[in-house]
TrEMBL record:
Residues 14-144, 145-205 form the Arginyl-tRNA synthetase catalytic core domain. One of its GO terms (cellular component) is mitochondrion. Pfam families: tRNA-synt_1d. One of its GO terms (biological process) is mitochondrial translation. Gene3D superfamilies: HUPs (3.40.50.620). Keywords: Aminoacyl-tRNA synthetase, ATP-binding, Ligase, Nucleotide-binding, Protein biosynthesis. This is Arginyl-tRNA synthetase catalytic core domain-containing protein. One of its GO terms (molecular function) is ATP binding. Belongs to the class-I aminoacyl-tRNA synthetase family. Residues 203-228 are annotated as: Disordered. Residues 206-217 have a biased composition (Pro residues).
């Protein structure tokens, strides 16, 4: 047996213990989950992202998954092949979606459906929006009509933020006078780095209209960054800057960015 096969078997056996309500397996899972959630909170709070509830497919109960299968069966959507339960989606060129294994253990798709049932009953929402990576396209397409850490292809958020902060800190240090005037240069550099990462990510999306964030604030900044006005226009200039400052700060908050007093 190859190492990969041994790992897969070990994972399956551990997962089966959890499904069978093994106390030791569940206790370890709860500890690991709590550690993960604490890490998520810490890392996402740095770019000013907060969540009210942290949950996941592992929190979906067996009752909800059983109800999901029962619902699919009542709609005559379940097919069985060699003990495996499938949903036929060839009509939409999505293949066959597996919703139940031979050994009776559920899979992600079943958990997702069960999870939606539980969440709808809890929140009674009008619309539910999933925000996931592009690697989950097929999985979610099957669900509505799957970067692997094991392969080492993931770049973690904390690494990106740290690198962005280091780059900005180096840039700030090039101007000694301004650097000395900043109260906490390292924290300021980190905040600017986070802002740069978020703006870069937003700018990479499909081009937004020219009057919406994140395109408007930079244009407004460039339009008012002049020092060639005459002396008599100073008062009007200061009032203009005050208004621009408020608009820029408001725009940044809309983008979940934290405006800095000095940089």
């Amino acid at each position: 047996m190859e190492d990969g096969d041994e790992d897969a078997l070990h994972n399956w056996l551990w997962f089966k213990r959890m499904e069978d309500s093994d106390e030791d397996a569940l206790h370890n899972w709860l500890v690991w989950r709590e550690m993960s959630v604490r890490k998520y909170k810490k890392e996402y709070e740095r770019p000013n992202v907060k969540s009210d509830v942290y949950t996941g497919e592992s929190r979906v109960g067996k009752e909800a998954m059983d109800r999901a299968l029962e619902t699919l069966e009542s709609m005559d959507l379940i097919l069985e092949s060699d003990g495996v339960k499938l949903v036929e989606l060839e009509k939409w060129k999505l293949g066959k979606a597996v919703v139940g294994k031979k050994d009776g253990t559920p899979i992600y798709l079943t958990r997702d459906i069960g999870g939606v049932i539980e969440q709808y009953e809890r929140y009674k929402f009008n619309k539910m929006i999933y925000v996931v990576s592009s690697q989950q396209d097929l999985h979610l397409t099957q669900f509505f009509k799957g970067m692997s850490t094991r392969k080492g292809t993931v770049v973690f958020l904390d690494e990106i933020i740290k690198e962005a902060g280091n780059v900005m800190h180096e840039q700030m240090m090039k101007n000694k006078e301004k650097y000395k005037a900043v109260v906490d240069p390292e924290e300021t550099a980190l905040e600017i780095g986070i802002t740069g990462v978020k703006i870069q990510d937003m700018a990479a999306k499909s081009p937004p209209p020219p009057y919406t964030p994140p395109t408007s604030p930079p244009k407004l900044t460039h339009a008012t960054s002049h020092s060639s006005w005459e002396e008599e226009k100073a008062q009007a200039k200061m009032f203009l800057y005050k208004c621009v400052r408020e608009v820029l700060a408001g725009s940044m908050r809309l983008l979940s960015l934290r405006p800095l007093e000095r940089m």
